[in-house]
Amino acid sequence: MILGKPIWRFALLALTILLLLSLAISEPTEKEIFDDEDSEGIEELLAVDDEAEQEQETHGKFSDAEVLTKAQRIVLELNSDSAKRVIEQNEYVLVLGYAPWCARSAELMPQFAEAANTLKALGSSVVLAKLDAERYPKAASGLEIKGFPTLLLFVNGTSQAYTGGYSAEEIVIWARKKTGVPVIRVNSVTEAEEFLKKHHMFAVGVFEKFEGPVYEEFVKTATADNEVQFVEVSNIEAARVLYPDIESSGFFLGIVKSEPERYAGYEGAFEMEKLLQFLDHNKFPLVTKLTELNSVRVYSSPIKLQLFVFAKAEDFKDLHEPLQDVARKFKSKIMFIYIDIADENLAKPFLTLYGLEDSEDTVVAAFDNQISSKYLLQTDATPANIEDFSSKFLQGSLSPYFKSQPVPDNKEASIQVVVGKTFDDIVLNSPKNVFLEVHTPWCINCETISKQVEKLANHFKDLNNLVFARIDASANEHPKLQVVDYPTLLFYPASDKANPIKVSAKSSLKNMAKVISKHVRSSDDAPKDEL
Q1: What is the pLDDT of residue 522?
Q2: Distances (CA, A) of 506 to 29, 169, 272, 419, 436
Q3: Phi–psi pair at 464, nearest 5 degrees
Q4: Does residue 155 have an active-site annotation?
Q5: Distances 158 to 152, 258, 438, 452 between C-alpha atoms, Å
Q6: Which terminus of the chain, N or C, has fewer Cβ atoms within 10 Å?
């Protein structure tokens, strides 16, 4: 996904460009000299790092900052000259296209560097590299990097889209799977204990022998899945280190997560599609915290009923555990998601759909992505109320939520202001003809049309069977009002409110008056003045 650049970033970028140009006139910078060197220089620096690491191991562990710094140096920095060469000279290259101003790029960078460090330690042949697409737009275009951040895996020079998660562990899992290591084999209790230290979530398969149709389905599933680390084991004692409740005979598949609902065992037939479905419904925690990095995975979940809790971090601490208890009752049926209400990038787009973008209190909402309907808990966000709300959500007995502004005072108004809550009364249930203007604050032409409507309302003010009204579609919704273009003018005949007549907003004032007159004016009550 692409993030917009704030104005100050444009200013900062312009200043940076001027400084770079002034430096370029005099002599090349250290960075430019480094960019032109062959990748052998990188290897020499990494060799120095390895020597330093060996020396450090004799005195003590690296600090977290030192580990991250070393990991960042492992990632190759591509430029216009080196990008093509690095991709052509290596069998596997995982490229991160980024922009310096992109917040998501900045969030992904340390995860990418940590993944590079882990892959190097595992002896992987995958080269991790990054390209500043702002600085080297031609190179980025050649690699088909169009948004930020973008991850692409090049296999013998041919690219394929990245489809994994965005934590360091998930990047490692995906990269290894795509380069020939879909399953890790554990042979002993010691290896199982070491495996547990490194992996937070994994699928464990237990087999007497690593052969046969059942085992082949397991490997096919491991290869097809993009996010979960698979581990295979035949030693039953080692298997019980990973999954304590494994039986001593037959084959088994289970998923392990680092949360209260730690273990889930599969009980169906060993067929790839069914195994993948099991993983998709069990790989998320009981309550998933939405972040920029996991948002794509959450949105693409096969669980189409999703319940969202928007709350301040300190408020959610008290709610988290009881919410897990509620979520456990709807496991694999409703996905429970927490969003920090203070995180505007994540919370505000959702809350705006409910007209609650300025809310600071806890909000519980739900989406049915199968029918694109939304719902809102309109009582206190207690565990009992959330459970009742979830139960009705699952049963399909909740009424969809349509946002509405507060009911306005329309006394003596020549044009009635309609909100979501009053649309039925003023428009659909009124015995009168209604001429409705649908507008939004951001609409360029709406202000001009509003003035036209005001003139029409004044012109027809003596008609008792005609009401002029307007509604702000950005803040109000109604199931019978489906408008996508603004401004939109709709004439609702008193005799047929179900079939409003669309009046062109491009019409002249006189033509609009003729349309209205055609339906409501009579020779007895027609105004005498002319437009």
Answers
A1: 47
A2: 58, 57, 57, 25, 15
A3: -85, -15
A4: no
A5: 10, 36, 50, 59
A6: N
Of 454, 461, 424, 421, residue with least CA distance to 437? 454
Instruction: Exactly one of 96, 102, 457, 489 is catalytic; name it.
Output: 102
CATH of 416-525, one of 3.90.180.10, 3.40.190.10, 3.40.30.10, 3.40.50.150: 3.40.30.10
Fold of 65-174: Glutaredoxin (3.40.30)
Percent composition of the chain: helix, strand, coil (DSSP 3-state, to 5): 40, 20, 40
Q: Is 115 a catalytic residue?
A: no
Identify the CA nearest to 35 among candidates 78, 69, 85, 84: 78
DSSP classification of residue 6:
P
Q: Is the backbone of residue 433 left (phi > 0), alpha (psi -120 to 50) or beta?
A: beta
Q: 287-395 belongs to which homologous superfamily?
A: Glutaredoxin (3.40.30.10)
Whether 182-281 shares its CATH topology with 416-525 is answered yes
Question: Is-catalytic flag, 443?
Answer: yes
- The CATH code that applies to domain 182-281 is 3.40.30.10
Q: Find the catalytic residue in 108, 443, 449, 516.
A: 443
**Taking the CB of residue 23, how many other CB atoms lie within 10 A of it?**
13
Query: How many other CB atoms are found less than 10 A from the CB of residue 55?
Result: 9
Mean pLDDT of the chain: 85
What Cα–Cα distance (Å) separates residue 224 from each residue in 56, 122, 164, 175, 207? Answer: 40, 22, 11, 13, 20
- The dihedral through the CA atoms of 9, 14, 18, 21 has a sign that is positive
| pLDDT tens by residue, 119-175 | 999 899 999 999 999 999 999 999 999 889 999 999 999 999 999 889 899 999 999
Picking from 169, 68, 83, the residue whose alpha carbon sits closest to that of residue 127 is: 83
**Which residue ranges make up each domain of the chain?**
65-174, 182-281, 287-395, 416-525
Tell me which of 364, 415, 446, 505 is the catalytic residue: 446
DSSP helix/strand/coil, 388: helix
Where do the H-state alpha helices sit in 37-125? Answer: 40-57, 64-74, 82-89, 103-121
Amino acid found at 306: Q
- Segment 389-396 shows an average pLDDT of 97
Which DSSP symbol is given to 481? B
Question: In sequence order, what are the beta bridge partners of 310?
Answer: 339, 363
**pLDDT greater than 50 at residue 1:** no
Per-residue pLDDT tens digits for 180-191: 889 999 999 999
